[in-house]
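Input (structure):
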């Protein structure tokens, strides 16, 4: 598709770099913005720019936050003794949207994948170990996607935590093996959280 303006072409190209946005969708978005008041486009651009410059990562759980510590970690109504370990922010949001979990989180920032060159040192594992050692943590819920990489990460974490007095559980296998957590429907994910199992039980199967 030929555009009469190089500026429109550049804007369309910028939108197509977003996940799930093809050229046709990008064109519709650009033309929509072009038809709106100038202030609306400026507000959108300003919001994105401010997000990128001002966003922080929680010093405790590595969740995204407007402050040094996120709103979940500072919420006195949450159960600090139960930590749900997730791969990324998307998975945190997926679990939170089930409204079945009232503990806190720890975002690893990925999962162990030797083929991709991702080892334990590239993940937020050391800070998780420190939380377990320094806080009165009774349970770690391993809410990682049921893939080979996810299971490898859970196995590694269980090994380095074996001498610590913390219970390690995993979400129930209502989530099919090989699936990505962020795409699981909220009801299934919520039930998996509520019916979590001790990790040692899975090793014996």
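Output (sequence):
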């Amino acid at each position: 598709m030929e555009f009469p303006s190089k500026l429109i072409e550049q804007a369309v190209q910028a939108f197509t770099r977003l996940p799930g946005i093809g050229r046709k969708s990008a064109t519709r978005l650009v033309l929509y913005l072009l038809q709106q008041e100038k202030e609306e486009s400026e507000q959108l651009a300003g919001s994105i720019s401010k997000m990128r410059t001002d966003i922080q990562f929680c010093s405790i759980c590595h969740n995204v936050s407007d402050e040094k510590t996120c709103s979940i970690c500072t919420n006195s109504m949450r159960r600090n003794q139960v930590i749900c370990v997730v791969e990324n922010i998307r998975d945190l949001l997926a679990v939170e949207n089930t409204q079945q979990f009232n503990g806190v989180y720890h975002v690893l920032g990925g999962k162990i994948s030797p083929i991709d060159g991702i080892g334990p040192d590239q993940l937020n594992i050391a800070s998780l170990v420190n939380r377990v050692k320094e806080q009165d943590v009774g349970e770690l819920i391993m809410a990682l996607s049921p893939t080979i990489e996810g299971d490898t990460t859970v196995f590694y974490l269980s090994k380095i935590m074996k001498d610590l007095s913390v219970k390690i559980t995993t979400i129930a296998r209502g989530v099919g093996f090989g699936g990505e957590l962020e795409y699981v429907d909220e009801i299934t994910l919520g039930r998996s959280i509520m019916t979590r199992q001790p990790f040692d039980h899975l090793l014996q199967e």
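Notes: The radius of gyration is 21 Å. Strands lie at 56-57, 64-65, 79-86, 103-107, 139-142, 167-170, 197-198.
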